[in-house]
Write a structure and sequence with these properties.
This protein is 42% helix and 23% strand. The protein has 493 residues and is of the alpha/beta class. It has three domains: 205 residues, P-loop containing nucleotide triphosphate hydrolases (Rossmann fold, 3-Layer(aba) Sandwich), CATH 3.40.50; 118 residues; 44 residues, no CATH class. The strands form three sheets. A nine-stranded mixed β-sheet has the order 3-5-2-6-7-1-8-11-12. Strand 6, helix 14 and strand 7 form a beta-alpha-beta unit. The longest helix has 21 residues. The two termini are 77 Å apart.
């Protein structure tokens, strides 16, 4: 960040409309972090920043490892270790976390018995964690015709309570397996979406926490595509958010500086995100949320966490008046509380002064009559002058005070600066300052697209789709279970 974000000890939000420059600003900031030798973790659900940074790293070849996760491509796969804990990790704690992620990502809508659904999800997550098997294999235990696997799962449980849960399911008649069937249907994305099967269907894979402890740059393309539907974007984003939270819990006492950028975060927001904002600073993470505005957050707690913990804002083009007013009320209290003169107030006061005056009056006199037989007439004029004093009014314009702008007027004036922001320009709000920043032109370093693809495909932990599909087939063949095969209906006579 432009000032020391670690010194400010806060997270960041970049709210701006499409075309406002969010992606180029993010790419510029990540390039700055590379120059400062600080790793970045970028989740991008639009792929603009992902492609820009991939081009940048392909040209400069940073000194630290660069890991690419691109389930959107449909051609390359980075398997992720999520359901199966690393050796030495507490199985129950790991299963509790993964079960929570599944529940949050897939939701609980239209579930008749939510409590039993939650319980079976946690049973399944514990089975994965304790057995070392993949989620695809463990889900077979939720079929009634494979109920013997429920007894196998019970023998692996780390607690008597969880063991009894599986034994109860094993002993239940078929009609009571409806919740297990509903749970299996709810988990269908893991068995029907190829991108999710390839990413999470093997028991091993990339450990996000290991990669972060190695301080690797991690670039993730979550943009929806034909091979990667929006539902998959939401699930993978929720999983990676959970991994960031787990890293934050485990590194409160040995922080590792990391800049984390969550682009188009509204597409994969989860309940873990609010807690991540609250805890991750202690682990060295500085989170930047990139979206159109806080109105896109469904969870009120998350919206409050963003307001409280993202004290740096890069406000770009497209802010509504209501959003602009919110920025002013949150970050410009000192300005709006100052008295500001709108206009001077005047009145007219009449003052009387005694003045000398002189008035003159002119007139005519005439007389008519007969003298003898002749008409006789006489005329003349007269004038008079009068002197004296009198009081004359003199109106005077007198200032009697001033009228100040009221609070709403001052808020509206300050809000104009946010409503009228041009594209590629941002109002940067920091705890002690506010200033304007124009995003520099960020050009591609490498124009040869083939070299960019070569760099992308040569990243560690990444495999062609054909390789992963073969591994999935081999893993399935090595773990045979009884499967129901639907027979075609008999022809009618």
């Amino acid at each position: 960040m432009f000032t020391d974000q670690y010194g400010l000890n806060t997270h960041c939000q970049i709210p701006a409309t499409t075309g406002g420059g969010k992606s180029k600003l993010t790419e510029f900031l990540c390039r700055e972090h590379n120059l400062d030798d600080v790793p970045v973790f970028v989740l991008d659900a639009k792929a603009t920043t992902y492609r820009g940074l991939l081009n940048y790293y392909a040209r400069l070849r940073p000194g630290r490892p660069t890991i690419v996760i691109n389930p959107s491509s449909g051609t390359q796969v980075t398997p992720i270790r999520f359901f199966n804990p690393k050796p030495g990790v507490n199985v129950t704690a790991h299963a509790s976390r993964t079960g929570k992620v599944i529940l949050n990502a897939l939701g609980t809508e239209n579930i008749a018995d939510v409590q039993r659904y939650r319980r079976i999800v946690n049973m399944l997550a514990t089975y994965c964690a304790a057995s070392g098997k993949s989620i695809l294999s463990c889900m077979d235990a939720l079929y009634f015709h494979n109920r013997h696997l429920a007894k196998v799962a019970a023998d692996l449980m780390p607690s008597a309570k969880m063991r009894n849960e599986w034994l109860d399911l094993y002993a239940s008649p078929q009609r009571e397996w409806s919740v297990a069937e509903s749970t299996r249907n709810r988990l269908d994305p893991f068995t029907t979406i190829d991108a999710l099967m390839r990413t999470f269907g093997l028991p091993d894979g990339l450990s996000i926490s290991d990669a972060m402890e190695q301080e690797a740059n991690i670039l993730v393309n979550l943009s929806p595509s034909l091979a990667f539907p929006e539902e998959a974007c939401r699930i993978v984003g929720a999983v990676l958010t959970s991994e960031l939270l787990a890293f934050s819990f485990s590194h409160q006492h040995d922080p590792i500086p990391y800049f984390v950028y969550l682009d188009e975060v509204e597409m994969y927001q989860s309940r873990d995100l609010a807690l991540l904002l609250e805890l991750s600073r202690g682990a060295g993470l500085r989170i930047t949320l990139i979206n159109h505005g806080s109105y896109q957050f469904d969870d009120p707690r998350l919206a409050q966490a963003v307001d409280k913990h993202c004290r740096i804002k890069f406000v770009g083009a497209g802010a509504t008046y209501e959003e602009a007013v919110k920025h002013v009320q949150q970050h410009h209290l000192g300005l709006v509380n100052q008295d500001r003169k709108k206009r001077d107030l005047f009145t007219f006061v009449t003052r009387y002064e005694e003045e000398d005056f002189e008035e003159s009056t002119d007139g005519e006199n005439s007389a008519e009559g007969f003298v003898g037989e002749q008409e006789s007439g006489h005329s003349g004029s007269s004038s008079s002058v009068r002197h004296g004093t009198r009081y004359v009014p003199h109106p005077e314009k007198t200032e009697i005070g001033q009228e100040d702008y009221n609070l709403q007027e001052k808020i509206s004036q300050a809000a104009e600066e946010y409503v009228n922001i041009p594209e590629r320009t941002f109002r940067v709000i920091e705890p002690q300052s506010v200033y304007t920043f124009e995003v520099p032109i960020v050009d591609d370093y490498l124009q040869d697209e083939e070299k960019v693809l070569e760099f992308e495909h040569s990243r560690p932990h990444q495999f062609p789709v054909s390789v992963i599909d073969q591994k999935l087939k081999e893993y399935e063949d090595a773990s045979p279970v009884t499967r129901t095969i639907k027979k075609p209906p008999a022809p009618r006579d």
